[in-house]
Automatic annotation (TrEMBL):
Keyword ATP-binding: no
Pfam family, one: Glyco_hydro_88
Signal peptide limits: 1-18
A GO BP entry: carbohydrate metabolic process
One example GO MF annotation: hydrolase activity
Protein name in the entry: Six-hairpin glycosidase-like protein
Organism: Rhodotorula paludigena
Length: 469
């Protein structure tokens, strides 16, 4: 199917290349899909996408799903693209959209225009629905004329109004802390690390595409404020983020001081998207104006990444709460944190002035080891061909392991975990395609070799018992 898509894209691209205004050769420099460096195989990608189609239904799951599709299939449309064209979209770019994106955005818009509510998808979270915002905006910019091809009866005017309602309810209609951090929830003031993936990338993406300084600044300010509230400031864990803070006027009952692995991943990956939107936008004035903010974001992500890989592991995986060995091993948080490490390595190479944010070689090695632990040929953590990731945290209750996960896909699945695998594959691919080195971890790929060695010893022992009994 990827080959077919590539052919369609190539055919569509021909007449575009002939026209003098559309010589966008850079569109072909970002390599989509799997590459020779990938351990993941095509059948697993199909499996993961089928699972996402079936299970990614809630707002943040949809946001993670669509981001994974863009980064994996359409890297030239992501702010991580090797060129700045992603921020100058036209209907010609419709040819590069990932399969399935328009139909999902069409459903979202159909529902949003029916409900008429302020959020793009109805949710008790103030933040999660904003995670689909970038893809509504992406679809909007690539539609022809009045935009009516997206969903019957919903034209461009209504799409734009729905996006504006989502911006307005966040900036003006959601409870805030006294210092201006927007609550993750609609009913009271709660700061969840998850927010940083849901809202700032939306503000930054829309801000870059519409040259809106207010939105770009809001993206940065929310990252800064959330970090001030959630970052551990001293001790061995300094630099990692707690999950949920409620210690201020108007704070609700929900609090989680634990260093949730997935939450640190949401924060790191969200800040990376904001950083790329600042550093890689087409408008030079805005790019210059946000240079120091981009540098801050690089430092803040590096802090999370470096501390993460100093934390303990069990059979190669990070713990659900990073420093708590009584919690369980979690492949989902492990995947997004490995992804963030490769993305950080990529942006530190790609953008001038960010080289000091490059992860250390030991962090990069740890991320590579994690990639190989997750995508082993025996399918222990990612089944083949179904692409089921396990063991994983329950997306609906962040301190429990998800029950009834089955390798064949007939049980429960973590939609966000599935999306994280594609984000990891994409981040690693882009880093390698742009001259990054993959650390050689073959001599020490810990758990796998130890596991293989001990089963070999077991077989030899059994043979010896049979021979000499
Ligand atoms: C997922 O759904 C989209 C939209 O319906 C479709 O284009 C795509 O082929 C589906 N992917 C898989 C692997 O089923
Ligand atoms: C939105 O609408 C579709 C049908 O167009 C429906 O199947 C779906 O459940 C609705 N809700 C969400 C959250 O997408
Ligand atoms: C929607 O697309 C139009 C046409 O490209 C553009 O002018 C407008 O700024 C876009 N609005 C949003 C919210 O994406
Ligand atoms: C930028 O976005 C904000 C928030 O939606 C809006 O109030 C403002 O008018 C926009 N500025 C410009 C110049 O469009
Ligand atoms: C994890 O780190 C936090 C923040 O430093 C600390 O409060 C907590 O006691 C640590 N937990 C364990 C199990 O060490």
């Amino acid at each position: 199917m990827l080959v077919a898509l590539a052919c369609v894209v190539a055919v569509l691209a021909q007449p575009l290349l002939a026209s003098p205004t559309s010589l966008r050769l850079s569109k072909r420099d970002d390599q989509p899909g799997l590459q020779s460096s990938s351990a993941l195989v095509e059948r697993q990608v199909q499996g993961i996408e089928a699972l996402l189609n079936r299970t990614a239904l809630l707002s943040w799951e949809t946001g993670a799903h669509l981001e994974a599709l863009v980064e994996f299939h359409s890297p030239s449309l992501s702010p991580f693209s090797s060129e700045s064209d992603w921020s100058e979209l036209t209907p010609r770019d419709a040819a590069f959209l990932p399969p399935g994106l328009l139909s999902r955005v069409g459903q979202i818009m159909g529902n949003a225009s029916e409900s008429g509510g302020p959020q793009l998808m109805q949710d008790g979270s103030a933040a999660d629905p904003a995670s689909v915002g970038p893809f509504v905006v992406l679809a909007n910019f690539t539609l022809d004329n009045d935009g009516s091809e997206l969903v019957q009866g919903v034209g461009r005017g209504e799409i734009e109004a729905a996006v504006q309602r989502q911006v307005d309810v966040l900036l003006q209609g959601t409870p805030k802390t006294a210092d201006g951090a927007i609550s993750h929830r609609t009913e009271d003031v709660e700061l969840w690390s998850d927010f940083v993936y849901m809202v700032p990338p939306f503000f930054a993406y829309l801000g870059a595409l519409t040259q809106n300084r207010t939105l770009l600044q809001a993206a940065y300010d929310q990252c800064r404020l959330y970090r001030e509230h959630l970052r551990v400031s001293s001790g061995d864990e300094a630099g990692l983020w707690r999950h949920i803070d409620n210690r201020f006027e108007g704070g609700g009952d929900m609090r989680d001081d634990g260093l949730w692995a997935t939450g640190n991943g949401w924060a790191a990956q969200g800040m990376l998207r904001v950083l790329a939107s600042f550093a890689n936008q087409d408008d030079d004035d805005l790019q210059n104006a946000f240079e120091s903010q981009a540098r801050d974001l690089g430092d803040w992500v590096k802090e999370i990444v470096e501390r993460t890989w100093e934390m303990p592991r069990r059979s190669g995986l990070l713990y659900n709460y990073l420093n708590d060995t009584s919690s369980f091993a979690d492949a989902s948080g492990s995947a997004i944190l490995a992804s963030a490490t490769y993305r950080l390595a990529y942006v530190a190479r790609e953008f001038d002035g960010l080289s000091s944010s490059a992860p250390s070689s030991s962090s990069l090695s740890a991320a590579e080891r994690m990639y190989r632990t997750l995508i082993t040929s025996d399918g222990r953590h990612l089944s083949n061909p179904q692409g089921v990731l396990r063991p994983v945290v329950d997306p609906m209750s962040f301190d429990l392991q998800l029950d009834n996960v089955r390798a064949d896909g007939s049980g429960s699945v973590s939609p966000e975990g599935e999306a994280f695998v594609l984000l990891l594959e994409s981040a690693r691919r882009d880093y390698l395609a742009n001259g990054g080195d993959v650390p050689d971890v073959s001599a020490d790929s810990g758990a796998d070799r130890a596991g293989a060695a001990s089963s070999l010893v077991g077989v030899l022992a059994a043979v010896a018992v049979l021979l000499f009994a």
